[in-house]
Design brief:
Blueprint lengths: L16 H13 L11 H18 L9 E5 L6 H9 L4 E6 L1 H20 L10 E5 L11 E7 L7 H14 E11 L2 H9 L4 H7 E2 L4 E4 L4 E4 L3 H10 L2 E10 L3 H10 L13 E9 L1 H11 L1
Parallel strand pairs: 1-2, 1-4, 2-3, 4-5
Antiparallel strand pairs: 5-10, 6-7, 7-8, 9-10
The chain binds S-adenosylmethionine.
């Protein structure tokens, strides 16, 4: 049988889902400084503007309190869900992650609510935020979501887990829904490392053929897709891509934050900036038409 050109075989460092869960729980609970893009106001502002534009379309056919948003692999920072709830009161926001991560997120959310109350601010809009133990590779069939926001949460070391996550998102997105978010880009790491390391060193960490990045400090591997692979995955799963862009982290807050986090990556020249994919995708028109006919 012909080799599937898109396949990414496992390596010695590939983790199964149990190992992934263990890894993320340890990351979130050990105080290890996870880079969370939505800690940066400039990224949050860009996301909120794009969310607003999508919600203005959705709100032509339903009221805001019927709108459901999913944040899969939400992590523990809570800033994104809080900002969405405060800016678009009424929408329901479901945040999903592994069990222990959800426990940590719930405590952080309660702490933030308390802080807002002490500052005399209303926490009423936050009542529509809820946390759920949700394995992104196997989401329940319902509810269906108008918006799915992925912030660097599709980067498992096993390609098949990422495939299953995107397949799950496609299954639970409503016909008029949209998938948006940030996805790492393997070429960004190669680009940055090639300025400061020898080719041998670069390729000891990056396997372009497997779109994989090996993090030496932690000895873990993650799949960071190339634009072509990410595009193929989404299209093959029935998404139509509306935007798949290079998003440069060049605004001062995110520039500093990313540089501090990935200090070993950076040449000191200030034009050396990290980047990721910014994606917006919708269910393919053909399948949207089919589901509309089925629901009539
Ligand atoms: C890089 S962190 C990003 C967290 C968060 N989105 C942020 O920006 O701060 C990746 C997150 O995805 C979660 N994750 C990975 N695989 C998952 C899965 N199969 N189901 C649910 N969550 C998953 C991890 O637990 C982790 O919280």
């Amino acid at each position: 049988m012909a080799k599937d050109i898109w396949d990414i075989p496992d390596s010695n460092h590939t983790m199964d889902i149990t190992a992934e869960e263990r890894y993320w729980i340890s990351e979130h609970s050990s105080g290890y400084d996870i880079l969370s893009l939505t800690d940066c106001q400039s990224v949050l502002d860009d996301l909120l503007a794009n969310i607003e534009s999508h919600l203005s379309t959705v709100s032509q056919s339903k009221s805001l309190d019927e709108v459901k948003i999913l944040i899969p692999g939400c992590g523990t920072r809570v800033k994104l869900e809080v900002a969405i709830a405060q800016n678009f009161p009424g929408v329901q926001i479901h945040c999903g992650d592994f069990t222990d991560v959800i426990q940590l997120a719930t405590s952080e959310f309660a702490r933030l609510k308390e802080q807002l109350t002490l500052q005399g601010q209303s926490t009423a809009p936050l009542e529509r935020v809820s946390y759920h133990v949700l394995d992104s590779t196997n989401l329940p069939d319902s509810p269906k979501y108008d918006l799915i926001i992925v912030i660097n949460s599709v980067l498992a070391s096993q390609h098949n887990q990422n495939f299953q996550m995107l397949e799950s998102f496609r299954r639970v997105i409503s016909p008029e829904g949209r998938l948006i978010g940030f996805f790492p880009n393997i070429f960004a790491v190669a680009d940055l490392l090639s300025l400061i390391r020898s080719p041998d060193e670069v390729f000891s960490q990056i396997d372009i053929q497997r779109s994989s990045y090996f993090e030496q400090k932690q000895q873990i591997e993650q799949v960071f897709y190339s634009p072509l692979r990410l595009r193929h995955l989404l299209v093959s799963l029935g998404f139509e891509i509306e935007r798949l862009e290079v998003y440069f982290f060049d605004k001062p807050d995110v520039f500093e934050r990313v540089r501090r986090h990935y200090a070993e990556f950076f040449h000191p020249d200030t034009d050396v900036v990290f980047y990721e994919h910014y994606l917006e995708a919708v269910p393919q028109r053909k399948s949207r038409g089919e589901s509309e006919r089925a629901s009539n």
